[in-house]
Design goal:
Layout (H helix, E strand, L loop, with lengths): L2 H18 L5 E9 L6 H11 L9 E7 L2 E4 L5 E2 L16 E5 L3 E8 L1
Parallel strand pairs: 1-2
Antiparallel strand pairs: 1-6, 3-4, 3-5
The structure holds zinc ion.
The site of zinc ion (ZN) has 8 residues, from loops.
């Protein structure tokens, strides 16, 4: 996922929410980021500072809540947390595994004034 596009969509959501709430300022945004979502917090923060510059979201704090990833083996149904770059099932050694947790990325809540 590209952080610039992601950050733009976060800003769009935040501004729409603020407008609906008739808010004057957005103070913080709580984000849920899965371990496998390939989102780099610092990049999002970097783009945020650029994109939010001329909006009521300027200076808003971004809070990242990390979700630990989980994979499930399609062969033996074993669920496990993969070690670095080793996605094979530790129970049966199968390579046929699915991400069952940790690929999400969403705006959880937005705080406004
Ligand atoms: Zn297995």
């Amino acid at each position: 996922m590209h952080e610039l596009a992601v950050t733009q969509s976060i800003l769009d959501i935040a501004l729409r929410h603020a407008q609906e709430a008739d808010a004057k300022r957005i103070t913080s945004i709580n984000l849920v980021v899965g371990e496998f979502a390939s989102i780099v917090d610092d990049s999002v923060q970097f783009y945020w500072d650029l994109l939010a510059e001329d909006t009521i979201a300027k200076g808003a704090q971004l809070r990242f809540e990390r979700i630990v990833g989980e994979m499930t083996c399609t062969h033996c149904q074993n669920s496990f947390h993969p070690q670095e770059l080793d996605f094979a099932c530790p129970n049966c050694g199968s390579q046929f595994v699915q991400i069952t947790k940790g690929d999400e990325f969403r705006v959880d809540s937005i705080d406004v004034e």
